[in-house]
């Protein structure tokens, strides 16, 4: 008996030792280099006046190198690249000066960032074309970056330890950002950079989408996506689909999507809504659900799931374990064409883009690589005129431009390291 106790105690101490070493390593600042950008002091925003015309642009955030790529939506030529992290040294010093932030940054890097710091997630251009507003996950903040000087006009830390996906109000005055670990969504005044409101969310608040008229916010929390096993589902936390009043930030509706799936006869292993696409009349939402390869149609008016589309799983992925899905993503990226008739799907784990007829659910796929896991298409965004979709191909560091009418790729734009969100905007560039 004494020998057994000694063995157990020894194993406990060994386990504690391994945990201590692991935590210590998480907290170490990695030796990394990030792209540098020469900033021209004379190109300050103060010198950019209204005589410089607003230029239609597309901006792509490259999460792992902290670079924002700006390209032309007509020629697809790169116009400019700017750093989303001009203050990187200051921020890293701040992070690694305290144990809590240091361990958190290490956790984000190893588990959420797949071994990389998450440096720019979502971004939008300002109404006057002088700034890009960007959320920065590892730095747990939102910044306004002067697109000509490269300087930060304002910086707003979020509550908690990580910033995530964002949205901007149709009038361009309010920037929404999910504060992942605080279970909150902040509303930031883009003029001052001050938090002026917000609302409570579930575990790991994620996607935010404004209605066309700007009166409602569609939001989803995704839970702890680093947990894959269905038997541990109870540890993932609350995962809700929410509709929120955009003026008062009061809750209009909160939905446990698993209940709606079960009511519709769909027995699925998760409930977390990932990217979503909302029709302009707000009658239907097209929802990607954690670990699902395809999407569900949700009738917003009648509060029920009406249809689903199972998209094909390549032969090489047929036996893929749940733990091999990146952050619980089956398919992660969905967009509607300007006329709401065609759906573009980023088949994240399957390495293709799917173009789907909304009425019939008939589809065609565009395979991006011989290895289904290599390309990792991650987000889909419709062009300003609604005729094309921009799909970030995060594993191949490019953005594919897909024509809705033909279902074909018409251009590919090399951007930066691990592109995620792609947004339409306007800028005044010198």
Architecture overview:
With 430 residues, the chain is mostly beta strands. The protein has a domain of 272 residues: YVTN repeat-like/Quinoprotein amine dehydrogenase (Methylamine Dehydrogenase, Chain H). The chain has five helices and 28 strands. The chain has a four-stranded antiparallel sheet, with no helix packed on it. A four-stranded antiparallel sheet has the order 4-5-6-7, with no helix packed on it. The longest helix is centred in the N-terminal third of the chain and has 25 residues. The termini are far apart. About 6% of the residues have low confidence.
Short key terms for the protein model shown above:
430 residues; mainly beta; Methylamine Dehydrogenase, Chain H; 4-stranded antiparallel sheet; 38% strand
What is the end-to-end distance? Answer: 79 Å
How is the largest sheet built, in terms of strand order?
3-2-1-28
Do you know the CATH topology of the domain at 58-329?
Methylamine Dehydrogenase, Chain H
Strand content: 35-45%
Please identify the top-level CATH class of the domain at 58-329: Mainly Beta
Structural class, by secondary structure, is mainly beta
Q: How would you characterize the largest beta sheet? A: 4 strands, antiparallel
Rg, Cα atoms, Å: 22 Å
Average pLDDT confidence is 92
Number of strands: 28
What is the CATH architecture annotation of the domain at 58-329? 7 Propeller
Which quaternary structure do these chains form?
Answer: single chain
Shape: globular
**Low-confidence spans:** 6-21, 39-46
CATH homologous superfamily annotation of the domain at 58-329: YVTN repeat-like/Quinoprotein amine dehydrogenase
Q: Please bin the fraction of helical residues.
A: 10-25%
Number of distinct helices: 5
